[in-house]
Each structure stands twice: as C-alpha cells, then as structure tokens.
Amino acid sequence: MLFPLMLDELVGRDALVRVVDAWVQALDLKALGFAKAQTQRLGTPPYDPGDLLRLYIWGYLSAIRSSRALERECHRNVECMWLLGRLAPDHKTIAEFRRQNTAALVASCAAFVQFARQSRLIRGSTVAIDGTKVQAAASRKAVVGQRELAAQAQRNAQEIAAYLRLLD
User: What is the mean pLDDT of residues 72-78?
Assistant: First the structure.
C-alpha cells in the first residue's frame, strides 16, 4: 500500500464505539460532576474526563473491567484507538478516574437510562428472569407514581454504586 490507512477507515460505520463517542459528546460532564472537566491554566493538562469515560463505557460493553486490561487494549485494539484518538492512559490513571468520579459515573449511567426511556429504546414492559421474557400486564392500581419513580431511581443509583465498589 502506498498510503497508510486512517483509523476511521478501519472502524465500521455501525460500530458500537461510534455510539459511545456520540453519547459522551452529548453529555455535560461538568454538570454531571466529573473532576477535571474544567482544566487549570498551569501545568500539563490532564486527560479529558470525556476520553476516560469513553474508555470506561467501551470497556464495560466489551466485558473488560480491569484497568490493566483497558491499558493493554489502548495499545492494540483498533476501535479503542479510534475512540480515544490514540491516547493510551496507564492503568493507574484509569483506576484513579473510576475512584475519583464514582458519583459522576452513577449520574452518567442514570442519564443513559433516562435517555433510553425517552427515546423509547427501552419500554419497561418486559421483565427478564434467567433469560425468560414475560409480558407485563399492570392494572390501574399498579400504575407507578412520582414517589415510586424517585424511589426506583434511588435504588438504581445504589445498585450502580454497589457495582462500582465491586469493581474497585
């Protein structure tokens, strides 16, 4: 080949990494509470929290939880290289990002669930237990009110926090 390939040519148009990239670009990272979302004037700039969030979400979707494994993927996985623009944070940086931004990670997960509901990507009308799908049929008495929705959101946040503690 006379011309080198661009990473964009190697990543499919319908690849999941493109969805992750678009989702993170749509978020207001500062409002979600990510540390270092606004850089200081002195010193070397830190990694953009958006880049580390992209890596974290991609790793979750690819079943790669370890910060050391994520570091390796930054050097050898084409989709990961495309997603981060060839940045390769070390495992300590990845682990510190997770540790310092636990609340912001929970908020971004909750924002994604809200987005999926509003976009009708998920309906909440199907319950899956051990791979079995059961169609729900709720009576008028079983309609969920505002308080119940707030309690459900709180339970979801607690489950996400427990999962993040398990990862740590």
Answer: 94
